[in-house]
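ok so I'm stuck.
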Amino acid sequence: MTSQNHWRHIITTRGTSAPTQHWIDYWIPAMCATFVGTVTYMSPERIRNEGYSYPADIWSLGLALFECGTGEFPYIANEGLINLILQILDDPSPTPSKQDFSPEFCSFIDACLQKDAEARPTADQILSSTQIIRSSKSIKEKKINKK
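replied:
not stuck anymore, here's the structure
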């Protein structure tokens, strides 16, 4: 929101309005016009500003599960946005350690983190995967046994 004296008002984390007139005025609109969401989980095609669809979500799922499994985000995210983007676009896709994780987990993550969006599995393919079905049955059985 811009007032008559050209100060921009932002909503603070406390829910109040605060006037601001510095570099953030120029940075926020450019950032919001370029990306919506967390850049760390964006797929390569989304970062390149290409057309994207559900495969971008599969990429994000792969990163989230990689992080859940290993306890670490697979890219170096604390060295700046440009460095992170270059890693996602130029480096090989991350893969879990074959020594520490099951072949099924590694294969699943590798499939989700294909740089080519068309090479990633669809949601239907993931849901029909025997390893997913096996895991979901195991989870359901545990919930039933707790009752």
